[in-house]
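Case study B.
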Amino acid sequence: MGGYGDVRLLREDGLRLDGRKLDEMRPMTIEAGVLPAADGSAMVTHGLNVAVAAVYGPMEAHPRKIQRQDRAVIDVRYNMAPFSTSDRIRPGFNRRSREISKVTAEALESVVLCERYPRSKIRVEIEILAAEAGTRCAGLTAAAVALADAGIPMRDLIVGVASGKVEGIVVLDLDKAEDNYGQADLPVGILPNTGEIAFLQMDGDLSPDEYNLAMEYNFKAAAEIHEIMVDALKRRYEGGEN
Amino acid sequence: MGWLVAQNGEKEMSNGQNGAELRLVTPGMAIGPLAGKRVGSGTIAQNDTIIATRLGWTKEFNNTVSVDPINSAYMPRSGDLIVAVVAEVRNNLWFMNVNGPFQGLLPMSLAPWKVEFGAARQHMGIGDVVLARVQEVDECHNVVLTMKGVGLRRLTQGTTVSVPINHIERLRGEGNATVQRLRDAADSRIIIGENGRVWIDGNAEGTAWARQAIALAEASGHKTTFEAELSALEQNAPKKGDA
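Model:
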């Protein structure tokens, strides 16, 4: 991700190609409880990304060798649908989906009170139906809402958000062109109430100042996304006091 | 920081406790300062603040702040009366589906019959439904069931209906008042298992009506309009002896 010199990603008026400001997020909507068969579920649309997460369990962990005697294990399966991108993706697990499943599971394990369910497993299925950069963040956010919807005890809702660098300038929430032709990408999982970081990856190079600015953008966006998450959960049960 | 818990008198809870469950909280949300209050289920204390760990309604009772979860898995507790389904049979025990994360174990020594080693299948097979009690749950969530006790038996007739765990209280009503009304109106035997399974045994009309009433209690058992809605439904209840 060294950047592509002749690709212009910022307009002359300082805005980005899609008209967003540097610290502006793509539009996001979240809906909780979209899958009746799951114990908890959520759908996140973020720009052109569409991520659906379903939570099953806690259930007895099988095979028994994966059981932990003192806590639950979180089994995450992140998958991109074959039709989610312009080029068809070969169905099934690949290196990238394994990596994202692993880091998502580790991020979720830091917020879920796993010690409440020893020897059990919580299954989280994340399906990306449409992809436009930032799917791991959309998937993480969807998983957090789905876990809350399933009644799984958590310390906080975890929010997935990313910043990056294009044409030497730090921007929030990269779209596909910025992700492909930009210079850096910094996806993080933030616990908005405590300000903790449960997940951080970086692709490309950022100076310390750029990193600090990117994190500032990320925290600001995390607060916005958290409000949307809370609103989605409340909307599901509004009026009915279910 | 102000309290998110509704104060006494705002709403009478179905079990007669004062203090309402009116505020919906999400995991991580601060409910209020600790200030000498006790931390109940669905909450943790963090930096002198009570934090919700589940999506649900806050309530305060006996100086304890807790969250009534909107969704939750059944976690067996010793003494629970449950409706369980046989999931596996071994020579000397049955594994039971208790509608929770873990299977329950019913050893032949705790069955109501004298069972010879290897003859477990002759008494109960996979899919059979029983009324059992949770004898013991250890720290590793091993669940041991018993069928030795008054009324504990294999359920050979009737039907079962599943209800969310958190709706059981509203289905029972205060002092079991609601479920007793349903029994009378449906002219059926109705047993509510703590694990979210309800057993109904009556004629076809009574069972169908009981299902309707259970759905109503689930949907509006906590609302002030429930009494009127249930009374209206009772007008359509099958007459006794209709079968």
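Chain A has a mean pLDDT of 92. The remaining cases will be described in the next quarterly update.
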